[in-house]
Amino acid sequence: MKKLFFLTCLFLFIQYQVPGQSLTGLQGLIVTPSAEMHPNGTFVLGTSYFDHHNFEYGFYEYNGLAGYASLTFLPFVELSFRYTSQIRTISRENRNFPDRMPSFRIRALKESKWLPAVAFGLHDISSVDGGGAKHFEASYLVLTKNFTIIQLNIKANSGYGFGILNAKHHELLGYFGGFTLSHGNFNHLQAIIEYDSRDINAGLKLLLWNHLQLLAVTREMKYLEGSISYRMTMK
After folding, report:
1. Residues 116-121: contacts with CB within 8 Å, 24+ apart?
2. What is the pLDDT at residue 3?
3. pLDDT range class, residue 98, cuts 50, 70, 90
């Protein structure tokens, strides 16, 4: 009943669609990526908070904090670099040393009236220790399609994580999908529901002054996480 009440509240307060960064640092929903791209030359700086229940890099014991930067160019390519650390003293002796995560997405097909956007990407593409230091690997194909019913905007997202890179932990492995819901009368807030190949997550994403994005999330519908980011377009 608590989950049903939470979902009902999300649907009651949904507003217009806001393409923006996921917790990973790349554009997407919550954890899962999308096939949409920011305008050419968009640069994003942000930080994300991770609860220890979902944080393999913290041995599922310590919460995590990440800082990231991403750049969209051409405009069908997005590159991202993220530093992730456990929220405790940084030291090699206690196995807390910031994890470096370079990632990218390439859009192979732009969305049209009848066809979805299609993109593929790789997370955590370089590592030491033969992949043993890769904690956020994802190798995936994703499709995104937008629909409008009266004033209700629906973004459907569906993809598959292949896990083709050798890694200690795969962030996406198998089918993932989700959607956002919003209303055309207010263009800065969206509600998100996703299945990240393991669990169901929900969240709200708010864009302020067309630059500042806030993301509030419940992972597994239980654990609070979030991010804040700032975007700008370089001309």
Report:
1. 116/35, 116/143, 116/144, 116/145, 116/156, 117/34, 117/35, 117/36, 117/143, 117/144, 117/145, 118/35, 118/142, 118/143, 119/33, 119/34, 119/35, 119/37, 119/144, 121/26, 121/33
2. 45
3. confident
Domain span holding position 221:
2-233
Domain count, the chain: 1
Q: Which of 177, 173, 155, 152 is nearest to 164 (CA)?
A: 173
Tens digits of per-residue pLDDT, 30-75?
Answer: 999 999 999 999 999 999 999 999 999 888 999 999 999 999 998 8
DSSP 53: G
Structure tokens that stand for 224 in this block: 């609070």
State the CATH number of the domain containing residue 205: 2.40.160.40
Single pTM value for the model: 0.85
Question: What φ, ψ does residue 6 adopt, rounded to 5°?
Answer: -65, -45
